[in-house]
């Protein structure tokens, strides 16, 4: 006797009449999902017709028709009905799978595959409704079924995964899903190739490494091509040589469709995407107007000007570690020690501009560069460090004329008014945020400009680019990378100051985006509060309270040790080098005698650039992010940091970093226009691997270093 659905009433919402033609037999469900006719294909039969068939069919066939109907509702873009029917059909399948007559392994597998298809219907409907969190859960269900039963995903699963991951700002996972989807297609569409390439060009260097670690299909040729573009894309002749080598190695790869385009000079090359066109863009900038407090910590480090942190808040990655005595004592003659007094003030190619009267107006010359820095008074030391970095780069590659304008000696209107007299064709700076705002207020100014900070206002004009070393970017890289190492429950130990709080918030936000889990945070100020914060984070204090309570209840002697939380599997430190030296060994030794060693990571705030007489024993095993120049071998005579330490041995780490930033800014001048036209071009600089984003912001990719007893080793974390 045929068994009919016990809940046929659920169809009453849709049924309007009886079927007038014999129902087709549904495609048999096989273990290879790729053989299943699903919502990816255009059915000639409507969803309502499948519902009509289901009303008269026996139970198992009715379930098949209901699955088809839900898929077809999605095809017809009737997403609410598709979602509702998929949810109800899931319940009916669960009831049928519990029936004693349907316990065979083959039938149970068919039920699971039906659940898989319905999960995709639900995900499709939810994505269309902008319900991305719920859609992600449906995709998790589909993935669990596919993993349990060793099934190959349908391409539609990966396309949905791509959309969900993009919405959740997981660019690497999104592109991984897209690559998997395209690999399942019988033929690769040219648009798919262009899309993959465009998305690859948007990834940072560390994101490309993370993508490779996910092992997407046939990715080696893609990685070889994007790395060649990163390194050689600025020089078209060198790039063409690399493209020829790539073609020889991967003659049959889909990306060969890009080679003719990439081999064409930029001036003759049509854009693959409208997104590549330069335009005014908005960029989200956090309101940092209150970040002007003088910080106090274990090293008694603070900025000597109360407004310096505010004005440099997106350029200084570690304002709190700037030594006030060093800042107060640095003077301009340091520049002469490096460059020679004559070249600093009177050389043919370098001019210290003080606003002398000029009457001749000249057309802009791209090789005449105005550099706007605070060279006297407030924030002078930061301006001098940037100036010296620019001049060091200039010494290695002269040929341009540099005009230095002191933003503390003249107002911005005066400075800009002199540009025509000097035929200025490019501007580096200003450095201070307030000066950038004043500069941007000069409405008639249309010169290409490289800011050395982020403006307070939210728009960077078409010809303007902002170069900053904001610490939030470093926190995003660290959180994303460490989340991929399968750490589940991090403890963030952060010094309580404005900068560290910004870094902490960026780390937490990114970690939650990656894992859905909010990290635990313990803030400390100074002295013993570090140990207290650490114990509170690991709940060692609570453990001791429990031991004391038991001891009071039982008069006999009880041997006991405090235990820490076992779920915390990683510590991330945001603090100065001295604070980190105190925290790291305490974590290693005193957290708990029972627990295994907890790995400790840190931001660049923890790493000092001093290279003489440094003992790393207390920091052994600590892994941190920092600029490439900070990880150079100090024995290397060509090391920029070695040079900086020799010339300015008492200079703070903060100013060494601004020095490196100035160095990179000079080298970027020639590349920025190419980077705008070719988003795959990178600059391998002292401060990081630099790329230009769609928002006209220079973004850095940092390296990872690890302390050993007597040295720092560069390590790779994907």
TrEMBL record:
GO terms for biological process: peptidoglycan biosynthetic process. InterPro entries: LpoA, Peripla_BP_I. Keywords: Membrane. SUPFAM superfamilies: Periplasmic binding protein-like I. Residues 286-305 are annotated as: Disordered. GO terms for molecular function: enzyme regulator activity. One of its GO terms (cellular component) is periplasmic side of cell outer membrane. The keyword Transcription regulation does not apply. Transmembrane segments: none annotated. The keyword Oxidoreductase does not apply. Residues 286-301 have a biased composition (Low complexity). PANTHER family: PENICILLIN-BINDING PROTEIN ACTIVATOR LPOA (PTHR38038). This is LppC lipoprotein.
């Amino acid at each position: 006797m045929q068994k009919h659905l016990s809940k046929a009433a659920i169809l009453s919402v849709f049924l309007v009449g009886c079927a007038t033609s014999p129902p087709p037999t549904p495609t048999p469900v096989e273990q290879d999902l790729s053989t299943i006719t699903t919502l990816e294909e255009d059915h000639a039969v409507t969803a309502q017709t499948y519902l009509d068939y289901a009303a008269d069919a026996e139970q198992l066939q009715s379930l098949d028709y209901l699955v088809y109907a839900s898929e077809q509702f999605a095809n017809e873009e009737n997403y609410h009905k598709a979602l509702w029917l998929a949810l109800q059909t899931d319940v009916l399948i669960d009831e049928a799978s519990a029936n004693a007559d349907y316990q065979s392994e083959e039938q149970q597998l068919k039920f699971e595959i039906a659940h898989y298809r319905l999960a995709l219907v639900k995900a499709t409907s939810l994505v269309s409704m902008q319900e991305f969190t719920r859609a992600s859960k449906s995709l998790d269900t589909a993935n669990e079924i596919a993993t349990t039963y060793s099934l190959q995903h349908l391409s539609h699963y990966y396309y949905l995964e791509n959309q969900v991951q993009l919405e959740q700002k997981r660019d690497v996972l999104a592109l991984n899903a897209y690559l998997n989807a395209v690999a399942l297609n019988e033929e690769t569409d040219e648009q798919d190739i262009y899309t993959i390439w465009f998305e690859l060009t948007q990834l940072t260097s560390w994101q490309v490494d993370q993508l490779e670690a996910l092992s997407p299909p046939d990715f080696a040729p893609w990685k070889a091509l994007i790395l060649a573009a990163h390194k050689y894309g600025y020089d078209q002749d060198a790039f063409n040589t690399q493209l020829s080598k790539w073609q020889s190695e991967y003659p049959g790869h889909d990306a060969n469709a890009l080679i003719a385009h990439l081999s064409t000079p930029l001036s003759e090359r049509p854009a693959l995407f409208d997104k590549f066109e330069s335009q005014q863009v908005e960029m989200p900038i956090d309101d940092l107007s209150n970040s002007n407090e003088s910080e106090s910590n274990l090293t008694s480090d603070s900025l000597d000007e109360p407004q310096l942190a505010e004005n440099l808040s997106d350029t200084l990655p570690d304002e709190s570690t700037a030594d006030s005595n060093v800042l107060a004592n640095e003077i301009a003659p340091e520049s002469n020690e490096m460059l020679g007094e004559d070249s600093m003030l009177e050389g043919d190619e370098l001019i210290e501009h003080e606003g002398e009267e000029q009457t001749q107006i000249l057309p802009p010359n791209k090789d005449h560069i105005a550099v706007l820095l605070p060279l006297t008074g407030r924030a002078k030391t930061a301006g001098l460090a940037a100036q010296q970095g620019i001049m060091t780069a200039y010494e290695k590659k002269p040929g341009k004329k540099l005009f230095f304008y002191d933003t503390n000696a003249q107002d911005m209107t005066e400075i800009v008014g002199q540009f025509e007299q000097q035929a200025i064709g490019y501007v580096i700076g200003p450095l201070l945020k307030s000066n950038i705002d004043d500069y941007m207020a000069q409405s008639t100014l249309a010169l290409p400009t490289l800011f050395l900070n982020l403006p307070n206002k939210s728009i960077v004009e078409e010809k303007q680019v902002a170069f900053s070393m904001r610490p939030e970017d470093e926190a995003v890289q660290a959180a994303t990378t460490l989340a991929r190492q399968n750490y589940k429950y991090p403890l963030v130990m952060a010094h309580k100051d404005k900068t560290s709080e910004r870094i902490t918030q960026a780390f937490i936000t990114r970690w939650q985006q990656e894992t859905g889990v909010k990290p635990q945070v313990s803030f400390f100020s100074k002295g013993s509060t570090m140990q207290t914060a650490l114990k509170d984070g690991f709940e060692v204090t609570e453990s001791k309270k429990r031991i004391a309570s038991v001891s009071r209840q039982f008069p006999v002697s009880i041997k006991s040790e405090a235990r820490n939380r076992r779920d915390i599997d990683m510590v991330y430190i945001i603090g100065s080098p001295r604070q980190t030296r105190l925290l790291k060994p305490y974590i290693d030794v005193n957290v708990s005698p029972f627990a295994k060693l907890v790995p400790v990571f840190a931001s660049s705030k923890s790493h000092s650039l001093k290279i003489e007489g440094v003992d790393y024993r207390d920091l052994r095993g600590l892994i941190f992010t920092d600029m490439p120049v900070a990880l150079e071998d100090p024995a290397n005579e060509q090391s920029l940091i070695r040079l900086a330490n020799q010339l300015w041995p008492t200079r703070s780490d903060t100013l060494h970093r601004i020095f490196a930033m100035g160095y990179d800014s000079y080298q970027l001048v020639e590349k920025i226009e190419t980077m705008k036209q070719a988003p795959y071009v990178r600059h391998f600089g002292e401060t990081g691997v630099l790329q230009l984003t769609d928002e006209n912001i220079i973004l850095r990719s940092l390296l990872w270093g690890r302390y050993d007893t007597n040295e720092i080793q560069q390590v790779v974390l994907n």
